[in-house]
Amino acid sequence: MYGVYYKINLNKASNRMDQFAVKQQRRVVMAIGTYFLVIALIAGFVIYKAVQNQRMIKSLKSTLAQIDSEIERLQASSEFLSPQDIYALAELANNRLTWTEKLDVLGRILPKEVTLTGLDYDYQVNSLTIKGITKVSMRMKDLDVINSIIDIIKADPNFSSGFVDIKFGGSNRVKRQNQELISFEIYCLVG
Hints:
The protein is α+β, with helices and mostly antiparallel strands. 56% of the residues lie in helices and 23% in strands. It has five helices and four strands. The chain has helices spanning 12-76, 83-95, 99-109, 142-155, 157-160; strands at residues 115-122, 127-135, 163-176, 179-190. Strands 1-2-4-3 form a four-stranded antiparallel sheet, with helices on one face. The longest helix has 65 residues, at 12-76.
């Protein structure tokens, strides 16, 4: 019969300690490597952004130089506009009434039962007169119907801006094709 032999490794504990130390050293090397890699990436990004900013600054400086030379050329010509001329033109453009836009807004905000019959502008009074007709309401008085139209017009800032006052001009009942209607006038005073 053969005997049973056991093999005992007396260095087993030291092998585990060596393996643990090697793993620990790998972790330290990996952490330090990752740290330096992150630092290198951040530094690369910062350098890239700095180069981009320098290029942009150079581009803006060249554009500024072109604008300065263009200003000098225009100032030397007879077509030069002073800053006061430009401000006056800007103020004129900002303060003018654009009637096309106003009338477009007016057409959109008025109720469907209101029909415009005339638009007149009085240059002496600086007033726009809106003439129209609407159906007679059984629930409201004639003046209340017209006042509700005026309130709609005043409530829309796209139309009412530029007018000092929007007020009732007059109304009367008319009969057309066997139907009673309210004919009205609204005055819009330009400021």
